[in-house]
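Methods: example folding runs. The two proteins below were folded one after another, and each record is reproduced exactly as written to the output file, sequence line first and structure-token line second.
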Amino acid sequence: MTDIDFKNVGMSDVFPEVDEKKTRQKVASFLSRTLPRMVRITSKSLTELRSQRLDGMPKGSSSDNDSDRRIVQHLYAEQVVKQVKQAISQCDQESQDILNMLYFKNYSDTQCYMALGRSGSSYSHLYKPQALLEFADCYFLDDLHIYQAE
């Protein structure tokens, strides 16, 4: 194992500068497009995915491979959903509320800021962007950050 000389390592070497706008866009896309797909995939039972028709005739392994692929997709989707819930739980309470309302309860932005008792402006310029960035910091299955080019 290589020792790290922390005296010669700067914060930007370990944590490169994040492009906040692009990161927020990526997180919003992930939560609004990818997450619902993962939830749909996990709604199928593993027995549904595995069932095969047995007619006694020899077959190639393509259906086995397809079944295996679907099972792996199902298991990965379960991990995504689990990690999303875990990441949201690691955010501060206001960000948890925003993320849960938007992506699990399907609130609109207007419904969300009204439920929080915030102005539309402060919600869209401060609270929602902060929630998306916190989520990116807390989600560890993939890196949702977009880094600034140097």
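Second run, written to the same file directly after the first:
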Amino acid sequence: MKKDLTRGLVGVKLGKKQIPDREIDTDSLQRAIAYYEHDPKFRSLMMLLATTGLRLNEVITPKWKDLYIDSVRKKHYVRTETKRHGVRHALISS
């Protein structure tokens, strides 16, 4: 589109208290993981999201080459792009 559709619209500004809390509590997470006990792909995805703190897009966009081992610490990491186009190195728990 060549025409700016947002022209004339007022931006939305929310205070910190108005932004909803998007964290999931431990009990809810454990129930969800137990519910998907027979779906190993979804269960693994939920566990990965919960243990790394990564966003879904940060999990699904990296390539195999972005997974690496830190030989000094002997830990696995994934290199991923953040929401604001930064680079993040997230620890993958084993």
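Comment on the second run: The chain has three helices and three strands.
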